[in-house]
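Here is this case:
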Amino acid sequence: MGDQNSILSPAEARHLLRRTGFGAAQRDIERITDGEETRGEAADRLLGFTPTTFRPRNNDMEIAHNKWIKYMVRTPLQLQEKAVLFWHDHFATSNDVVGDPHQMAAQNLTLRQHCKSDFRAMMHAINRDPAMMDFLDTVRNRKENPNENYGREVLELFCLGVYDLDGQPNYSQDDIVQIARAFTGWRVDQRDEAYFDVGRHDRGTGNPGDPYPERGPKVIFKDNPAFGPAGYDYGAAAGTNYELEIDEVMNAIFAHQDSAGRNTVAHWVAYRLITFYADPNPSVAYVEAMVAASGFDTSFAVADLLRAIFVSDEFYAPVTDPTKRSVKWPVDFVVSTLRLAEMKLRSRYQYINGGSYDTIFDELSNMGQTLFEPPSVFGWDWESSWVNSSTLLARFGFARDVSAARGRGKTTLRVEKLFDFAISSNVDPDVVIDDVTKLFGVDDAFQPGSNNHDALVDYLTDGGGGLLDFSDYETRDKKLRGVVALVLQSPAYMVH
């Protein structure tokens, strides 16, 4: 058992860096271990960044996609980009529907600016985000026919979840209907800024003489523990300041309590973040503990919640328990590999200079993840859903392309500079295997005597054992590239 004062071991440091960023370079591991950083100190340092103002802008969505990948590879703020990737899935918005790369880039910046902030501030920004307003039809939501799409997803996906931690429903269909009324009248102007058109807004309260009296008062969450049988009348709270109704709705959502009296938003968001960073199947007790330790149910400070997760024992459980490991997302698999191999992609279309010469957009699309194009409002399916016969073959193809990369500078896999052993006619296969597997952070799965290790020895020596003749360039080049491909294709490298 450990806590925030526990000094990180090399394996724990590597795990922390892999889960909070893309890959764990040896120099970054040594920064933690040489400085004898504790869990708390390392988490504070990683979380201590000031969000950048990067946005992947381009009229061509593929180029914008590749710009973000390039930024992920080169930025030192790895936790920032890992968090933005999470929020991109949480607030899944697809350019296939929006059709505006500039709005998508602006949303990407919004997620970056709020990635560790007060979740309430993030939701207020998302409510008025032009890409989201288009994607979930807020811009088409008017008093004559209120559109329920955004109201439904605010409750189901963004803030509450359909059911609470005890399996009880968190809201009703009527709550969705009433929230839809609050968002009537919101539009986007030619400058891509949200504005309120009161003429399109449902101003009725349900009183005689009001428009649409059959809709009744604007009341949500009746019989919820936070509000009692009468619920919360956000229309009455906003009065004639109709533009404020969406803010009153959010006030009610953030005060919502589940069937056990817990703050629902805090526990839903904590559950989601835990499944992404720490445990795909967290216990109720773990979720409750993280909310309590961080005070997230009152502050809604994402950074404090993440810190609590990053110092918990459950976060470090996969270091010793392989059953707790998670399948890397395709973006994680690709970006981690490029960072650890110290490779750059070529041209504005970002392709690997070897193998199939596919662009990184195509490589990731084949693996099942195209940035800015999640498959639905639910985002991507995680864990084992990432791996099937088609997507696994695509991962193998990417590994092949990386290992085959040639050319000048950092666009090639610089096999002779990545490893520590001397070029000679008497190279021990174990030395090669140790260097390659340490570089990619999977040396624990390739220890001498293991089946994985023996398979690489057989490959390097053509099944004959003995020392290697790496004084011959062709042998050295072929075998080193081959080992890299095999390690990247291994099950051990697909998880973290």
